[in-house]
Amino acid sequence: MPIWFTIDLDVEFDNERFGKPYGSKNPGIEKGIPLFLSLFKRFQIPATFHIQEQSDIHDSISATYSHIVEAIQKDGHEIGLHTHFQKGYDPESREREITSGIRRLEEKYGKIVSFRAGKYFTSEATIKILEKYGIKYDVSPYKNTSIGNMRWYDIADSPYHPSYKDITRIDNASILMIPITNKRLGIILDSSISLELMKKGTNILISESKKIKQPIIIFLSTHSWKCIDPVTNSFRKDIIQRLKEYFAFLQQFNNIEFMNIRTLGERWEQGEFTPYFLNTPDLFGQNFSLFSPRRYFWLSKYFLFWRKYFKYILFKKID
What we know:
- The protein is α/β, with parallel strands linked by helices and 319 residues long.
- The chain has two domains: 285 residues, Glycoside hydrolase/deacetylase (TIM Barrel, Alpha-Beta Barrel); 32 residues.
- Helices cover 37% and strands 13% of the residues.
- It contains ten helices and ten strands.
- Helix 4 runs parallel beside helix 5.
- The longest helix is centred in the N-terminal third of the chain and has 19 residues.
- It is globular and about 45 Å long.
C-alpha cells in the first residue's frame, strides 16, 4: 500500500510559545510563514495551516495578519482552524471560541473542515461542537503523548472514528480523528532529533506499509515559530536545513504521496479503510542517554493512570 505524507502548521501568536510573551512582534508569523511557503513551493508539498482564531478579535490571526493567510491560500494550501481553550472552559465557552473562529475564516477563505486544539487538548464535548458546525477532521491527537489529563497513548496509529464517551477509543462518532505520527518514531522537527532518526522512523513505517492493506500515514506537525530563534528572532538554520533534507529524502520514494489534511481525510473515508495499530520501537527514547528524563517520557502513561485511579478512589470515598 502507498504511504500518505501530510504536514501541518499551527499558525499562532508567538506569545503562545511556552506561554511567554515576546513583545508585539510575531516573527514566527511574519518571517516563519513566508519561509515555510517557499519550502513547500520548492518541494511541491501541499500543506495545511491551522490558523489561530479566538472570540476576541485581538486574538485573531486572520484579522491581524490577513495578508499572511491570503498568501497561504494563494499558494494552494488548506486553511484549518486552531483554537486555544483556557483551563476550565465549559462547553458553552468552547462553542463560542470555535464558532467565532469558523465564522471568521469561512467568510474569507471558504469551507473549513479540519481543526487542531491548542496544546492538542480536544475532548468529547469539543468533538460534538465540531460536528455540529461541519468540521470533519480533528487532528489534535498526538500518538504516545499526554496533554493535561488527555492520554494519547493507546490510540490507533491511523485515522479513526472515536467514541462520544472516550475519544481515545474507536466507535461511531461522525468526526474523523487523524493522529500525528507516533512520537516514539522520532519524526519530529526538533533540535534534539537528528535527520538520521527521522529517516529511521520513516523507514520503519515504509516497512510496515508492506504488511497491511491500509495506507500508512506519516503526519509531521509543527508550528509557525519552529524555525525562529526565540531570543534573537533570527532563522534557525539547523531546523531549516533538516526540513529541506527530510523533504528531499521523502521524494526518493515512488510510493509516497503528498497531500493536505482535507484530501487525506476524504481519501480515507472514500476508501473505507479500517483503523490499525502498529508495533514499532521507541526510537525517541533511545535517542537520549540513560540519565536523561526524556528517555523515560513514556512512564507518564502509568503516572497519569494511577493519578486518575487515586482521584477516582478519593471521590468515591467522599460520595
